[in-house]
Design brief:
It contains 17 helices and ten strands. With 422 residues, the chain is α+β, with helices and mostly antiparallel strands. It has a five-stranded mixed sheet with strand order 1-2-8-7-3. A three-stranded antiparallel sheet has the order 4-10-9.
């Protein structure tokens, strides 16, 4: 069955796809010039196909990520007012490092850690505490500790095929559920986990004063937010944890693979930003972003009356050899050049009014975490398994074709620096 579905795969970039039953044409691009042209013609509005895929990942039709532009803009300004202050991020990052890495580095030996599921758990906990802004009660704490998080998600083109066939409509819900239970058991399992987490956060957490959770409660009480929208924002915290965990996992592996950068980061704090940007260039957490404009085109390629879904293929954009020198090489120094990431060629958080609302939080978190890992205070050593180095040439490999991409091999040894040989 999966091989049959794969025959419908939307391949490559700089291509346009259409089928008789599709209202819109589907265009994929990894070309900054095309993205710039698109931006000049129309504001970036989240496409219906993209929102359909995100809804199935978010398990909600109402969060800021998948809602309409007006609602998203309304919530964005409230969200940004509840962001943690910059001085809080070092402490937040230290907490994640301790729970993911340092607690495994015991007894003077190097411990093998499978990063992704561990990172998701702790980043989700951290986002509840510091971004949603709640105090976690014991039943929720215990449930998070016992979850087996499964970072793999099904191939994006299967959702695209289901969308093309019209299977996104509510009447086909039972069919979609059956397909997931048979062919995508991991996704079905995480959907159930997310629903349970949404219920438990709703019941077993206490909002902190001035937090995003408090703001959501006030908006709900004033009638500016429905119950469904309120719960949608709780669910979106888990999705944010997936995306940020993907970036953290890739960053830790890159740091273990390129340890010559530890001293550079420790001696010049600004270099941490370049390292993070290079990680996001080579391993963007979200592999594509979808935008839509209504029937404004004419001519043979874009008939009047049809819109165009533009999917920015982030992975291809960030490795496009026309716009990046040695695009497959890990080289943070490339960002020392002025405007090196401008002109629509570096878009790890999307673009325009529908870009990621948590981009400033994510960047601050990644930089603070990297600075702490490279500091003398931390004292941790990260090493890759020998077969990882042999198979992957010393660098991680991203899992292609998924909405959120985690490293294919996420094993890492962790210990204290006084025991470098295990």
């Amino acid at each position: 069955m999966l091989k049959f579905i794969d025959r419908f795969r939307w391949k490559g970039s700089e291509q346009i796809y259409t089928l008789p039953w599709l209202k819109n044409r589907i265009e994929f691009s990894a070309n900054p010039d095309r993205i710039r042209e698109y931006a000049r013609s129309c504001p970036f509005t989240r496409s219906r196909l993209s929102m359909t895929i995100l809804k199935r990942f978010h398990l909600s039709n109402h969060s800021i990520v998948v809602s309409d532009d007006e609602h998203a803009h309304f919530l964005r300004k409230h969200f940004l007012q509840c962001m943690p202050d910059s001085h809080q991020f070092p402490e937040i990052a230290e907490g994640v490092v301790y729970r993911v890495l340092q607690r495994h580095a015991q007894g003077g030996t190097m411990s093998l850690v499978n990063l992704s599921s561990e990172v998701i758990r702790e980043v989700y906990r951290s986002l509840l505490l510091n971004l949603l802004g709640v105090e976690i009660l014991k039943p929720l704490e215990q449930y998070i500790d016992n979850i087996v998080f499964k970072p793999r998600t099904k191939l994006m083109h299967t959702d695209g095929l289901m969308y093309a066939l019209g299977l996104q409509f509510p009447g086909f819900g039972p069919m979609r559920t059956l397909v997931e239970m048979v062919f995508f058991k991991g996704d079905h399992y995480m959907r159930k986990v997310a629903r349970q987490l949404e219920d438990m956060v709703f019941i077993y957490s206490i909002p902190k004063q001035g937090s995003w959770f408090s703001a959501l409660l006030e908006l709900k009480a004033s009638g500016n937010l429905s119950t469904a929208q309120f719960r949608g924002e709780i669910t979106s915290t888990l999705v944010s944890a997936y995306a940020l965990s993907s970036a953290i996992s890739s960053m830790l592996l890159c740091l273990a693979a390129r340890q010559e950068y530890i001293d550079k980061i420790n001696n010049g704090k600004a270099f941490a930003h370049y390292f993070v940007k290079e990680v996001l260039r080579l391993y963007p957490p979200f592999q594509q972003f979808g935008y839509e404009q209504e029937g404004i085109w004419d001519g043979a390629q874009y008939p009047t009356g049809k819109g165009t879904d533009l999917f920015v293929f982030t992975y291809g954009l960030h490795r496009n050899p026309r716009f990046w020198k040695d695009p497959e090489e890990f080289y943070p120094e490339r960002f020392l050049t002025p405007r090196s990431s401008s002109d629509y060629k570096f878009l790890p958080f999307g673009v325009g009014q529908r870009s990621c609302v948590g981009r400033s939080y994510s960047m601050a978190m990644l930089v603070a975490l990297l600075e702490y890992l490279c500091s003398d205070e931390c004292g941790l050593a990260l090493l890759l398994p020998d077969d990882f180095v042999a198979n992957n040439k010393g660098m991680p490999i991203g899992l292609l074709g998924r909405l959120v991409s985690f490293p294919v091999d996420d094993r890492i040894y962790v210990g204290f620096k006084e025991y470098p040989n295990g």
